[in-house]
Design brief:
This is Tyrosine-type recombinase/integrase. Helices cover about 55% and strands about 10% of the residues. By secondary structure, the chain is mostly helical. Strands 3-4-5 form a 3-stranded antiparallel sheet. It has a two-stranded antiparallel sheet with strand order 1-2. A two-stranded antiparallel sheet has the order 6-7. The model has no long low-confidence stretch (mean pLDDT about 90). The protein has 2 domains: about 120 residues, no CATH class; about 150 residues, Topoisomerase I, Chain A, domain 3 (Alpha-Beta Complex), CATH 3.90.15.
């Protein structure tokens, strides 16, 4: 006989065990705080879905079900998947967000099975995780050179935006994640003769990198380096304020060309239109652009892929890295087309 258990308390226990370190990664490391925050978002969505759609969230021990009850439970989870994803799409969510919610729910099912010896029936295999290819927005080499070298533009910025520009340029050169940049201390910078190197271990991938710094990046470091080796080189700023200031700086730099943004819902592309006006390039500038710009710039300027991967910490099979390769190739194709168009016409 079916004896369902409420799902929400089990999900809360799943989060608690993750926070306290009872649940770890397969390699024994603790789950990152950002992942735990995402679990809370999923829980919030589940509670809201259950309330608004009047869908009772419950689980049954599949080992105690007869054949008819097992089929009934299977149908229940099929229905849940359909209704829950429909609920998220109606809220305005896109495939990546919906897919991440489903991925977390699958992780929760595996936790019940592996950590709590609760026979879930493996119904999570019914849940399809959708993914979408989101357009990559990066600075072109010309735009990056402008931020590095244009003194007139730099002098037009207020001190707080000058600092944002410097941090952004440093990130676009080194390929560091936002979180890693603010962990840098003087110990991460090493001088060998006339050359300077940045040496660090990525907080996310745990990989070690040693990157030779160009002169302008060394100048940025010297401008902000601290007296103590225990203090961060760059004074911390919230991600929200950094992105807000970055958009303001981009607008001042003239990066206001209109762009078309599309996202996918259930595998179908949907154009995103702003109510007030069309989105501009500067509106898409964010901390993520630093790392993406660094990787694509190295590829565009001819650095071999395997060396770029070593700097960025991507594996050879990384899907995200392949997107950067495709973007760099598309950029180079456009530049080649410009040259070909001049050659094809006798009068220029």
């Amino acid at each position: 006989m079916k004896k369902p258990l409420p799902l929400v308390p089990l999900f809360r226990q799943f989060i608690k065990d993750t926070e306290t370190g009872k649940r770890l990664k397969k390699n024994g490391e603790r789950i990152q705080p950002q992942s735990i925050q995402n679990y809370y978002y999923v829980l919030q969505n589940l509670v809201q879905f259950s309330t608004e759609c009047k869908f009772e969230l419950q689980l049954c021990d599949a080992s105690k079900l007869n054949k008819r009850e097992l089929q009934s439970e299977k149908n229940y989870w099929k229905k849940f998947y359909q209704k829950f994803t429909d609920f998220l799409y109606k809220k305005g969510c896109f495939d990546n967000y919906v897919g991440n919610n489903i991925k977390t729910i699958r992780v929760f099912f595996n936790y019940l099975k592996n950590d709590k010896d609760f026979n879930t029936g493996d119904f999570q295999r019914l849940f399809y995780v959708r993914k979408e290819e989101i357009s990559i927005f990066v600075l072109s080499p010309e735009q990056l050179k402008f931020l590095i070298h244009d003194k007139e533009f730099e002098e037009s910025l207020i001190p707080s935006l000058k600092r944002i520009k410097d941090i952004f340029v440093f990130g676009c050169t080194t390929g560091l994640r936002f979180s890693d940049i603010f962990l840098l201390t003087n110990k991460n910078f090493e001088q060998t003769g006339d050359d300077w190197y940045l040496k660090l271990k990525s907080q996310k991938t745990k990989t070690y990198t040693s990157v030779k710094l160009p002169g302008y990046a060394v100048d940025i470091y010297k401008r902000y380096r601290s007296v103590s080796c225990k203090t961060g080189v760059f004074r911390k700023i919230s991600l929200f304020n950094f992105n807000k200031s970055l958009k303001q700086m981009g607008e001042q730099a003239g990066y206001t060309n209109p762009i078309e943004v599309s996202r996918e819902k259930q595998g179908k592309a949907k154009k995103i239109l702003k109510a007030a006006a069309q989105e501009r390039f500067c509106d898409k500038m964010s901390s993520h652009m630093m790392r993406r710009t660094a990787i694509t710039t190295l590829l565009i300027l001819g650095m071999p892929e395997h060396l770029v991967r070593k700097i960025s910490g991507h594996s050879a099979a990384s899907g995200s890295f392949n997107r950067y390769v495709h973007y760099a190739q598309a950029y180079m194709d456009k530049e080649i087309d410009k040259v070909h168009s001049k050659l094809e016409s006798y009068f220029v």
